[in-house]
Each structure stands twice: as C-alpha cells, then as structure tokens.
C-alpha cells in the first residue's frame, strides 16, 4: 500500500511560556489539516508523541486529552519512547494506515519543558536512562560526553569538528523563522562557551524547548495534493544504558533502524539529498552521519568542519531546520518536526533554507543514548 | 489477514513488594513464548502497556527498557492510555501485525503500584483525569460515585445491585489462583464496608495492585497450536473529564468502540459467551454490560443480582478472572490480562473457572472515566 504525508506543521519552537500544550496542538493541527485539504471529521486515528507530561506535570492519557480538545472521538494513542517519542508516534500511525484499518491518521508531537525548573526537566529527561545511570547522578550531557571522549580517542575527532556542527545548525536555524535560536554563532564562541560535561560545552548541547509539530498520513491521496511518500521506515532498540554497549562511538539502534529503512526504500545512503538527524549534542550528529552510512567512521566530523553538509555546499545537506541544537528540542515534538522539515523540503517549500532539487530525505530520531532509534525515508 | 493470539500469561496479581517490574515482565514473557512455541528471536516487535512508571517512579522509555532487559533489539514501543494502556498496546500490536510489517508481536502490560504510598498512587492515577477534576480534588472513586448516583436516580439501580458485582467477582477470583483477592465476600460485607465516595464503599472499588501480563500476536500461525482469532477490535475516545458528557450513565467511548468491534467481527452482543469488562468500580461493570449491548439500560444491575452473569449460571459469564475488582488492577497489565483470560477460556484451559463451551469472548478496557475505551472480540 502506498502511504504518504499530506500535510505538516510546526509551531515556533522556544520558550513559549504564554501558550499551553493544547494551544500548541490546536495550532499545528489546524495548519496540517488545511495543508492536507482535510477536516477534523476526516481523521480516523490520532497518535500523540510526548515524553514528559506525566513526569513533569502529572498529566497522562494525552491521546484522549488532545482528541477531546479537538472534539475528535476517533481512536487516540500516546506513544512514548523518550526523545524518539515523536518519531515513534509517526511510525505507529503509518503502520496503522498501512494495516488498512484507517485511511487518514493525524500525528501530533508536543512538549512543554520551559515551564519547569531546568533541574526538574533534566531529571525528567533522565527517565529515558537506566537505573544505574540515574543512581550515578549522570545526566544526558555526561553520557554523551563519554561517547564524545571515546570518539575523540578512537578517531581523532576534535572539539572544532563538534563545534562545527553547532555553527552549521545555528546558521540553518537563522534561516528558519520558527527555530528556538535565530542567532548565528562562530567556532570560537562554541569552543569558549562554558564547560557542561567535558568535552561538551554549552553550545554543543541542544536546549530545553517548548513546541509542537503535526503530520497527516494517508493512504487515500487526493489528486489535488502532491503527497510526499513514506518509502521506508525502521525502528530498533539497544541496551537502555551505556554500560552494556560494546562500542560507545556508534548507536547500534540507529545502524539497524537505518538498514531496515534503506532496504524497505530500496536505496542506499548515497541517494539521500537531505537528512534531519538527532543532534541532541554535537557529537550525536557526527555519530549519526556515520551510523546512517553517509560517512565512514571518523570522517563525519571532518566533513562537517569542511562545510560539506551545510546548505548550498555539498550533495547531502543535514539539519536544515537547525536540528535539535538550534531549532530546539521539545522532546515529543522533535521527531514529528523532523518529518515536517523533510516533507517541506521535498515539496520545495522550505523558503530561504530550501535545498535545491531535493528528492529523497531521511529523518533520524533517537531516544535516550540510543536505546531506541527510528529512521524514516521520504521521497517526492 | 488472519491474526491470532498464540500464547498468553499473567503473573500473580497483588502486593508484590519483593518483585521488580523487570522480573514480572520476564516471567510472563517466558510463559507466553513457551505457550506460543516461539523463542525471543522470533519476536519482531514489542508493545508495552504502562501508565505510572514515569509519574510514580521517574522511569520512562519502557519499550526500550524491557527490550533491553529481554535482550531484544527489535522495535519496541510504550503505549499509554491510562487504565486502558494494556488494551491499547494490544490493539496497536495487532495493527502492526495486520500491516504485514511484523509476523510476531509481543505485548506486555505491567504496573507496579503498591511500592508507593496509596495517596501517591491515587494522585498518579489522576493523571488520567482532566485539569479541572484534579483542581477540584476529585479522585476516581468520587467521579465514578457521581456516575453511580445518576445511574441510581435514572434507572433505580440499587446499592445491592452494585454490591452483587463485587460478590460475583470475588467468587470468580476465588477460583483463580493468580487473583489479588482469593476470599469470597457477601452482599452484607460489601454494603457494610467503609464509605469511600457515597454511594461507593470500599468493596465497590478495585484495589491498587502489582502485576504483569503478556500475549503473543501472530499472522504466521503454526499448525501445532490452536490460535485464538482476533475477530474484531474498536477504540474510541470521549471528553477527558465528566463535565462535557451529556449523560453520566453510559460511556460513549465504550459504545462506539464496541460498535466497531461487533461490525468487524460480524456478530452481535447475543453471540458473546464470555466477557472481561472494566469493573474499576462496581457501577462500571453495570454500565459496561449496558454499553456493550448485553442488557438494556437499567437492567444490568438486576441481572447481576439475579446471578445471570455468574459462572455456570447464564448464557453470558462476566469477569471470570475476578475482574479489576478482585483479580486486581495493576493498571497497565489489566487490558492484557483481560485478553489472557479470554484466550485461556476459549482454549478450554481455564481450570476451575472454565465456562463450558465458550466460543466467543470480548475484552473491554477503559481509560479514565471513559475518555478512551478499547474492545476486542476473540473466537476459537
């Protein structure tokens, strides 16, 4: 069965103190439906991606909550898989459409994080980690710092290479009016920013953000809309904590998820024009570029530093939205925003950040330190 | 595509202070796989139903967590929909198999509640309710008491009729070695038990329990096993809180979910031999029997009091497991346990609680006060 995306939307990402999750969701749903030329009554299933509403706000049952808010009475589900919640919600919605049970499914990713104290948000996020990591007092910057250090030792990856990821993603975000950060930064600024968890500095880390994104998936594709096709998808898991990983410089879950997605799509990494990858920390983008098969191990950082993945420079452009680093990382929204960015690019509607002639795009969303990863491949 | 259940398992339900969620999951997975004559390597997707691990314990990402624990690297998801989490996980796993992407999916429902203070568990559960209900200090007994009071006023339903639900379910649980409560109770004991939220008394309420359940869903059905077929399924949603309901004596979500499931199965309520219904409070079982089409409005309580739904008495036997009331209600496990009970009955393997000649069974799982409901119909 051919399944495509009809419409997508994202809110502005950032510190949205004056806006409730319900308002964020209503905004993206209205926009995504309009783009799909559908109405709420056409929606047959709702999939919500969210991680922290329960831990930080005591509110669960978000499938029913947002269905209720939208005055839908159709099946509604919340899918949670840490920072991959949005991508996993999209994945399950697309399976549901592929099953033939629903024609049109609505995916919403949403997170409200900045209403809480940063230390509360950090502890909430550690809900994605393992008991032993929490008990050791580790937070995600510390865990990714471990991975960065091993990557540096094994492949000679430098702090400049990591910093170049942040510089590129801030540049892309400066072209994206909806990004959390609209300012460009320099290598020097990244390298001189405060240490968070050596070798990661403040500007190597994605922010805590608020935001929402939506996508409409359909098997009943109207002639009046040019759908973007879901060509391949893969999900894979790995140990929850780092302690059981044989290698800290790759995410096995991402490698396996990508393999499944490439096989389903019948393509290779060389065919990809644009990718949104999960750059929760700059080292994560470097690992992603390698795990997804775009670069050999140890080569991705150098390529980013050379500008190969910057808009308008090379064959493959990465994180035109600004990525998690600069577009922002409202956890449950991130995976759906990645899809929204790819779909918008493949339609040629990405404005100042448009990648000329982009035909095939990939979205890569990771939960925890790689305990779960989901990869989708789209084509126009 | 024909999709069936190959194997099921439940742990003992109750206060399992000495056992971790991981141990509970390992136990049911081992049992359900053995019954399915499959090994872990045959499992292609894992669906976990859980509500409270984040709110009460700070642990999210349970799909990856349990995949990691079981040394699986396949796709893994957590589905949350309050007290319907287990049923919704089962529903999504079966959609995933119907999509043709996976042949064998494993569903696990699990909840650990008694390690926490009862007031913490009660507040956690209110994560299924609406803002206004939480702000009003309402808990679920209070909300179901409202529904009970209206049902009494509108249909003359009596406290004796409600108590009869508890008496029946404790009788059934006394035949189920895995139930939380193994003791039989009398109408008088229920009626004289302490008031919780008038007209509901202590013995009208389901307990807070620990437990897990598992089921293996497959489209590749070996000849050596008699599968139980998934004949129909439906999910529907309604307003999160009671404030927007036109009628407090029915759950529209349950009515709509049942309608979809009956249509898909091509049967009517009269065809059902056994049902596991969501009796979080005794009034909920009475409403369920009416919403599912087994009895006209106002007639179900009288039928239960007459013993029509008791094992060995009438055409339809309800909650042979003991239901939420007496088998126990480890939230995320409940919907999967219902499936396990129906499958075991339809195989004729339910021991002392076996319903003779049961051919078609129904499972009815509700989240919140009916914000979401899921109905499955099975046949041998």
TrEMBL record, chains A, B:
Keywords: Acyltransferase, Transferase. Residues 234-379 form the Thiolase C-terminal domain. Residues 5-219 form the Thiolase N-terminal domain. Signal peptide: none annotated. GO terms for molecular function: acyltransferase activity, transferring groups other than amino-acyl groups. InterPro entries: Thiolase, Thiolase-like, Thiolase_C_2, Thiolase_N. This is Acetyl-CoA acyltransferase. It comes from Candidatus Gottesmanbacteria bacterium GW2011_GWB1_43_11.
